[in-house]
Design goal:
With 875 residues, the protein is α/β, with parallel strands linked by helices. The protein folds into five domains: 236 residues, Dna Ligase, domain 1; 87 residues, ATP-grasp fold, B domain (D-amino Acid Aminotransferase, Chain A, domain 1, 2-Layer Sandwich), CATH 3.30.470; 134 residues, Glucose Oxidase, domain 1 (3-Layer(bba) Sandwich); 230 residues, Phosphoenolpyruvate-binding domains (TIM Barrel), CATH 3.20.20.60; 35 residues. The protein has 34 helices and 33 strands. The strands form seven sheets. It has an eight-stranded mixed β-sheet with strand order 14-24-23-16-17-18-19-15. Helix 17 links the parallel strand 17 and strand 18. It binds adenosine-5'-diphosphate and magnesium ion (MG) (2 copies). Its cofactor is Mg(2+).
Length: 875
Amino acid sequence: LKQVYSFTEGNAQMKSTLGGKGANLAEMTRRGLPVPPGFTISTDACLAYFQSGNQITAELEAGIHMALSELEQKTGLVLGNPERPLLVSVRSGSVNSMPGMMDTILNLGLNDETAEALSNLTGKPAFAFDCYRRFIQMFGNVVLGIESHYFESLLIKLKRKHGWSNDQEVTADGWKQLIGDYKQCIKRMAPIDFPQDVKEQLRMAVEAVFRSWNNERAKVYRKIHQIPDSQGTAVNVQIMVFGNKGADCGTGVVFTRNPSTGEKRLFGEYLTNAQGEDVVAGVRTPLPISALADEMPDVYNQLVQSAEQLELHYKDMQDIEFTVEHGKLYLLQTRNGKRNAQAALKIAVDLVKEGILTKEESLQRIEVSHLDQLLHRGLDEDAVTELLGTGLPASPGAAVGQVVFDADTAVEWSQSGKKVILARPETTPEDIHGLLVSEAVITSRGGMTSHAAVVARGMGKPCISGCEEARIVPDDKKFTIGQRTIEEGDWVTVDGASGRFFAGIVPLKEAEMTPELLQMLVWADEVRDLKVYANADNPQDAEIARKFGAEGIGLCRTEHMFFAPERLAVIQRMILADRTEARIEALQELLPMQRSDFEGIFRQMAGLPVTIRLLDPPLHEFLPKLPELEHRLAQIASDAGAAAEETELRRMIRKVHELHESNPMLGHRGCRLGIVYPEIYEMQVEAIFQAAAAVMDEGTSVYPEVMIPLVGHAGELQVLRSLVDDVGQRILGTHKGKCAYKVGTMIEVPRAALTAKQIAPYADFFSFGTNDLTQMTLGYSRDDAEGKFLSHYLDQKLLPHNPFEVLDTEGVGQLVEMAVTNGRAVKPQLKTGICGEHGGDQESIFFCHQIGLDYVSCSPYRIPLARIAAAQASV
Ligand code: ADP
Ligand code: MG
Ligand code: MG
């Protein structure tokens, strides 16, 4: 099996073998773009390394040897040769881009001898020995695991001693001195001598990249992004080009379009006379790419052309790393650029308009995370408070939180329910757990492509980077800006879109639909098969749902209407009633309240179906909790005038005891209430039909769909369906012909799914209540599982997802599919849909499409997402 590929042998399709970076380096080489030559050690080689107990196999050894000889022939340089030294970079490259997760080693091949040679050959001793010390530092850090601050502090000490304020001023002798210090540091900490044998350097570097696949940061990243641990990483070995040889050299990063706005114009940053990650590290603040047009117009034009070529080739916005050596441009990496939601939508729409993508292709590009972001918040500009400072608008969105200065505190505070904003001089991959829990990030150093910026954009969090006026001092737990000092715990508001942040809490505004999103939704509606309904319990939600494009209401939970205080008193009276007559009396009081809610919803949803679920939760949920009642009782017991109230309280307490159940979720709820207290369901159905008749009289068409919850046996539905039909007969009267109402059931008890054939004759529709269906199929209590054991299951990968978020298609999905098939066998026109939490989840929506459901129903804010996901499923 071939384990090593020259860049001339691979192509973009070979990602799984060559990793993303290697595959694209090969593709660019193939397209004649200026890529320094090199070779890729495959992911297979990495896996073989792990399998042989972290040993480089003889086969790989031979493969590397051959590829290296070839490279030496091609370049006329030889690794370790003191006359013509070959220097290489060793770069990790996994299949999915894992930014900042694994480290690159530059200038490998330098030792005491070849460093002298490089100095003589170039006539630039300061350059040569800077390269050498950088190499020792990276090697010491990445391969030998010595924390970089040891090296940093030696450098700072050196500069201080000589009064140098930046690296550019350091002389060759200065670097030589530092090299001596570095070697000692390695000898003390590693503890080995820094290897002078260049073959040994290469072998150790390759192994370090392999092993970095299993470092903690990489593991965390894979877990968050669901990248399989079994992939392994490739290693790229590439000859060095130097951006740090003088003023006609430099290094930078460009995006072919603006990753924050999507605007079609080269966007990026560069630094002259710099190497490698100087741009990303935020040590010096880089120049905008437009400045390159003035400084090196030829290079700039060539960069523009290459960028265009790459974008057309990949049919997507590219993120390109480049280096300029003595006025010659080299491309070191290209990949599909990360972007925020607004940019993603704009780019996807623009690429269709430019004729580069079809609308189906561009729909596939839309990521759920982007839609989540787009539907994010901004600042209420009219209410802004004191402006503290402005940095780079690195990732949009607005957030409010309390300032913390380190990742661990961020985690601690967020676990105790606080909203935190992480403020750091800069961030590194070690801070990832802190970024994850923060509402937003502020850094004082680094540009738009700094670590904090890239990671925050990926996570869809607001980020302000490079706010140089802020002096952030984590050790003192405070930062100063102008005359102001902000301390740990102080509230600030961050606007990532403009780069401004404010003292205190600024009210935030909900997101709006952009023209690009609206365009994409129009295209989505053209291709999707699934209809998208909303879960909406009141006229206000219905209005929002309709704005977002709901084609009906898939779930209206009537009980939510009962919790308003004046209604709660009535429903409590209904529950406390000992006799049916008393209960009916209370119900008659509730009736007009329900009716007016339904009227409001019917008006909002004019012409569209409205699925109303009859009362579902156990009745005790409407009564106060026992301790509260007892507390109240104790308070009034001594009060002479409160006898009537006391009797009432005692009655309530008795009722709460009566209604107590060990497993209320498996108890007296859903249609079991309707069976025992038909008068409750009768009142609700009466309210529905009275409302329908009234709204129809206004000239509006109404399509009520009455949904019976928790049916497990056909008999239950048979009884309750005839209750609905009887009330309909009575109430609708002359409207009956025009009101084509439906009666159906929620399928949420496994037995209902299993006996769909028996149930279907009584149902006009099946709506899969996948929250309960998941709970009952897995036997997990939804309210308890999360906190008690589910996280362990997810950590140990016993479950691929939280089954309450992503439908368990293998298990629960089978029940759904079976019920659809069997139900339709009996009743071909049976309408089917899903109304659980899963109705707003992309993967679950794909499944619903696959098994041929008619609709998904989700919260109003998820509707745009569901429309797009449904379209993606259809393409
Ligand atoms: P990452 O995946 O973290 O971006 P890379 O492997 O792309 O790591 O390397 C980081 C940077 O190192 C590159 O952007 C480039 O500036 C520099 N670099 C890598 N290889 C070379 C090379 N052969 N010549 C010059 N610079 C290089
Ligand atoms: Mg890196
Ligand atoms: Mg890179």
